[in-house]
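One record is set out below.
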Amino acid sequence: MSLAAAAPATESRSASRWPAHRQRAFVFWAALVALLLSFCTVSIMTLVELRNDTWQRAANSARSLALAQSLEISRRFQIYDSVLRSIAQVAGDDAFTQIDWISQQAVLFDGALVDSALADIIVADATGRVRWSRRGGVGAETNISDTPYFQAQRAAIRNGLLISRPLVLHGRAPDMVVAISRGLETRDGSFDGLVTALVRLDLFEHIMTGATLGPNDVVNLVSEDGIFLARSPSLPGIVGRDVSSVPDASLFLSAPPEGFTSRSQFDHIQRIFSAVHLRDMPLLLSVGLSEDDIFASWNRRAQTIGLVLCLLAGMTLFLAFQIRREFRRRIETENTLRSSEEQYRLLADHSTDLIIRLDAEMNRRYVSPAALRFLGYEPDEMLDQNARTLIHSDDWPIVLRIADNARQAVGGTEDCYRLRRRDGSYIWVEGRYSYVPSDGGFIAVLRDITKRRMVEAKLAAAHAELTALVNTDPLTGLSNRRHFDEMLLDLAAKGDGAPVSLLMMDIDRFKLFNDTYGHPEGDRCLRAVAGAMRTAMESENAVPARIGGEEMALILPGRTLAQAQIVAERIRATVEALAIPHAGNETNGAIVTLSIGCAERPCQADVLEPLIGEADQMLYEAKRTGRNRVASRLILRKAQPLPAAPTDYPQREAVERFRALKLANGRDELDTLAKHVADLLNMPVGFISLYDRNEVELVGRHNITLATSSKDASFCRYAVQAQEPMVVADLSIDPRFAQNPFVTCDRGARFYAAAPMIDPRSGEAIGAVSVCHHQPYYLFGAEERAILTTFARMAMQGMD
């Protein structure tokens, strides 16, 4: 055949091969790009989900704080309204008009509320002339008919309580006040004047300043028509300003329950807001938390993950180019081998791959010249020797397996193994074996993949580093909350009924440690405690984690509660032995100590909530009963029953003063407070108990008919005697309450939480604000305890 005739055939074969080659290349690169995009997409979705979770938690915190603040402000307005009603009733009495003016002044105001926030209380007739003022000094020329609140009452007498815009008191210091007024009526229902209380606006700033906020957070009090009444922190000129026309004003005035984001027109800070309407008042209270503070940790994590993703993508692309280049070279080699034996030998002699011809006994019959470059041997030196002589002893079974697969014409005819070079070192090769039926031997094509193995090792190390970064707390080196939750979910998914114990740990008074020694020392303290945990752990399969702030946890799969207590005590003692100075923890030796709560449950689908809830409750019990200790059901069972402590003189005096100030006019206010706390915490029962001399009396009740109980049977005595809030997730499994008649009865109590009421004068606990439920409840955390404590303080308002 001539060269001219052979050329078209060659071109035809080449043309038929190119489309398949390009198709394989397209599939390869498309799959690689899809893999990288999917990995990036999953990472971005995870970051977005974390950001959304952070936003939602901030919105929930803002709403809880707004609700607590709004209840206190509403309570103040209700007190002032009751004073106005009382004065209006007295002023309309016929007998009142028969006495002299001085006696009238005394009757109206001598028994009125003594409150520094009340600038004045005024009673005016239908013409606007001020007839009586609590401050006295009323003259004939005193007339308020031109004031907006007088005109509003005269125009809408039957609208009840009205709240004015901010006003400046004339003739006195430049106090800003708001007028709270009620209209007076004649017997025929016509307008007969009004009674007005002038309330200083710094009252609301004082209430709002009590909220726990960051340096860039804000609390606003605005009327429903958009007039600013108060702001914390305060800004000059903000009170009385109309903001109804500024951007996003509609969001504030509509108070959506899900929260919203807005940029302040005053300090240009972007915040997450939650606003609530004050009950029966034309007022709104909003709490705004700074987005920069909330998302600071998320931003750092996003930057770190983005950098790791870029490095991983770069290494993947580099490896892909190397693999693709080697793949093309292998295809070219295999295509050439098919042409003929001569072309095969010619190609074998010049191939960059090492080609070896083996007989049925795996002896070498041909070795290509690449052996010198691969192994440092001349080809003739390797002939007539068994292949096993240069193969790593651990990898010989791999070679036998792929040779057997080639002989039987099944898959898996290529794999990676190690060959020894002349200098004694080993290289990695990828060997592909083809069976030769004529003599039962093999053709082995070996490619040096040592560099690829090195790249794969680096890629695996980068992947391991990324996994460790995602699952590890960077400060302590312990598992983070994400990995902690995943491990608990995995244990629950097993469902094999094996025991799993959980330790929840908290560094005692760590906030005082940070405030005293600074955050760098606080970080060192956290690392030292984490190191002590690792030292004291007895099991390698235990999972230590930092789940937030100074709170840490330890998962102990396969450990009973008794075994977990031993580990917990060892950790507590190890931390105590560090003797890290902590002046704020004087009651425990002025060193850093640890409180630990223990719980155990069998592995099953519904294990997470009761396991975490009981461990958290036991942690809180350890802190409540003195800190630097371990608490569990077993420890509580061994403890002696708490006796009903006698009431001493200061406590009895405080109880009697409470009766005189709070119960003299009935119990409606305390019943309302009990209902509010139960509604806010989603509990069916709320009550306020008074720890009296001989019994416990329920002085405020919601959905409970019980009026009194003995001290021995009462739940609140633990909170009263320890003067600390108390939470019991399941009364039926707590040894202190399991046999209590209020638990064992039909539809008995299963969940109970209480905060003690502390007398501000004597410091004595005289009772508790409590909620309970007929079902166990494990989600009552620090935020709910803070709300309960706030209501306990509200119950003691006016006792100082």
About this structure: DSSP finds 24 helices and 26 strands in the chain. The longest helix spans residues 3-91. The first strand starts at residue 118 and ends at 124. Confidence is low (pLDDT under 50) at residues 1-17.
